[in-house]
Design brief:
With about 230 residues, the chain is of the alpha+beta class. About 30% of the residues lie in helices and about 45% in strands.
Length: about 230
């Protein structure tokens, strides 16, 4: 049975690592990805300071890499908790690029259970969800309570939904926040309708407008011809 480590512990398993939690809001679900990047020395420093292990596990570069892979394979991450029910992220990918390593995990929320997001509920002072006829509204604020926030980012994106947010870092529909130790103020709204439908409405309006203009021009031309003929 895999050892269960909560999300906020895993995110900071390596001091100085670069990590991100991404939420991709789709038509019916919310795909979440956790990416954690670190160097071998960062991993060794953390293990030596915080975990019981044999000397052999970190003796050489090869044994350290084997240990890094074993930690990836034995780790489960809590995605959501509701009452006594838990659901977990699954391992998505393990990568090595030079001396840099990357753990990746994935989980699919839906628009109903996203309120029970374990990370947002456990790692921030306040996590509040509301909705109106057109949008889902998410507000996250206060202290970050899950340890080291160095190089930690929260990312929200969508190809199909309209996003309104207070992020100062927005590019190609990706809204990014750097997590702070104190006084986080993160807010974003996700449209209930798809952008494709909204674009279709706009396109239809443009077509109708263009047709009316052509008709008016045609009528004006005919009227001009008739007036000229009468003269």
């Amino acid at each position: 049975m895999k050892k269960i480590i909560t999300l906020f512990l895993l995110l900071f398993i390596i001091t100085g690592c670069s990590s991100s939690v991404t939420y991709d809001f789709g038509e019916k679900d919310i795909k979440s990805n956790i990416d954690i990047e670190f160097h071998q020395e960062e991993f060794k420093d953390y293990i030596n300071s915080n975990m019981v292990h044999t000397e052999e596990s970190l003796k050489t570069e090869d044994t350290t890499e084997e240990f890094i892979i074993s930690k990836y394979n034995e780790t489960s991450i809590i995605a959501l908790k509701k009452d006594d029910k838990y659901e977990y992220y699954e391992g998505n990918k393990y990568e090595k690029n030079g001396d840099k390593y990357k753990y990746s995990y994935k989980y699919d929320f839906d628009y109903e259970n996203f309120i029970d997001n374990h990370y947002l509920n456990e790692c921030f002072d306040f996590y509040f969800v509301s909705e109106d006829d057109n949008f889902y509204h998410y507000n996250i604020s206060g202290k970050f309570t899950c340890g080291n926030d160095e190089k930690m980012q929260l990312i929200v994106k969508s190809d199909s939904k309209t996003i309104n947010s207070n992020s100062s870092n927005v590019k190609d529909e990706k809204h990014v926040w750097d997590i702070k130790t104190e006084d986080n103020k993160i807010s974003f709204s996700i449209s209930k309708e798809n952008k494709i439908e909204e674009k279709q409405i706009v396109t239809t309006t443009h077509i109708i407008g263009l047709v009316l203009i052509v008709i008016l021009i045609g009528l004006a031309f005919v009227f001009h011809k008739l007036t000229k003929k009468n003269d």
